Automatic annotation (TrEMBL), chains A, B:
Function comment: Specifically catalyzes the N1-methylation of pseudouridine at position 54 (Psi54) in tRNAs.
One GO BP annotation of this record: tRNA methylation
Keyword Secreted: no
GO molecular-function term, one example from the UniProt record: S-adenosylmethionine-dependent methyltransferase activity
Protein name: tRNA (pseudouridine(54)-N(1))-methyltransferase
Enzyme Commission designation: 2.1.1.257
InterPro entries the UniProt entry points to: Alpha/beta_knot_MTases (IPR029028), TrmY (IPR007158), tRNA_m1G_MTases_N (IPR029026)
Gene: trmY
Domain of life assignment: Archaea
Catalytic activity: pseudouridine(54) in tRNA + S-adenosyl-L-methionine = N(1)-methylpseudouridine(54) in tRNA + S-adenosyl-L-homocysteine + H(+)
Length: 194, 194
């Protein structure tokens, strides 16, 4: 299994306009692209992938999404389609256990610690940061990795401290500062080559 | 310089609805993602990149777009923003020379041969196809490469023959069949490491 956990610092926690994913929805466009790049290949979905998203924007944070590649149906890789799926999940009343919204898509009231407690039982947490070890040197040794990465803002200092308590390793995918979804493509690429 | 030429087999050649990039606009979502991944890094644009797009959809094909990284302003990486920029270019009356639409964005009436004749003077044409040589073995030897790739359909047989007349090399980025924009991310990644 491969897992990804994306932290959306501003991503809103109520239904939003699909016309303004990058604005009033709190850079939900980034979240949509991350989900697409984690799940899709050409004409297919990676069934061995799970994507988790932590939504920290107003008005009702935190909320978490879980997208299970092996269960997903009726999803297309464009931002608007994935945005619509997230919006639908955000229309549900949440509690602390995962609630199914559409096939393969779940939502719950969870914060970063909740998520890492749950996920570190089945995954080895890998923190993606520019100053980490070169992914090329370690990709083929990563078993059941969960890659944690931030949106355009990165991770807040307190969240980074939390992640570092769970992370087995800090890994870098480029000396350039890349967009989160680009990091995901590169992670898949290096792991696919193993 | 790095160039990319993306062939949009169904991408429409008139202004389209931003609500339906993936449908009635002829998979314009793929074109938008390719442009974004070719140009953007985190909080910046790659100034040494040019992107060319061949639009072959109805009602008025062929049309070609040129996007010059060193000149681009007011562009964001989300599909809707780039879709709006393409739509604006498609509202212009075109002829055989490049006409500027917005900063760094040009449009003209050109077919695949026109484009390759023009671009092969300044670039070495590289055709991206799954059965090519491994990009990792050749990335650092590619000078001024222009990477040619198709959308979800790939290249039509006759277009592939045309490209092969100009291509110096056929290169593969993965044994998996990836999406066009994912191929672009990987190309940049391998070239950035050189």
């Amino acid at each position: 299994m491969r897992g990804f956990l994306i932290v959306g610092n501003k991503a809103v926690t109520k239904p939003f306009s699909l016309k303004d994913l990058a604005g009033s929805a709190g850079r939900m466009d980034i979240i949509c692209r991350c989900i697409a790049q984690a799940l899709f290949i050409s004409h297919g979905i990676r069934r061995d992938v799970e994507v988790y998203v932590l939504l920290l924007g107003e008005p009702d944070p935190p909320k978490a999404l879980k997208i299970v590649g092996s269960e997903v149906r009726y999803m297309a890789p464009d931002e608007r389609n994935i945005g619509g799926i997230i919006r639908k999940a955000l229309s549900l009343k949440v509690d602390y256990s995962w609630k199914r919204s559409t096939p393969g898509v779940y939502i719950a009231r969870k914060n970063l610690i909740d998520l890492l407690e749950e996920l570190s039982k089945k995954y080895n947490v890998v923190y993606l940061r520019e100053d980490g070890v070169d992914i090329r040197d370690v990709a083929c040794r990563l078993e059941n990795p969960l890659f944690v990465l931030g949106d355009h803002i990165g991770l807040r200092e307190e969240d980074e401290k939390t992640v570092m308590k769970y992370a087995k390793i800090v890994v870098s995918v480029s000396k350039l500062s890349l967009q989160a979804d680009q990091c995901i493509v590169i992670v898949h690429y290096e792991l696919d080559r193993c």
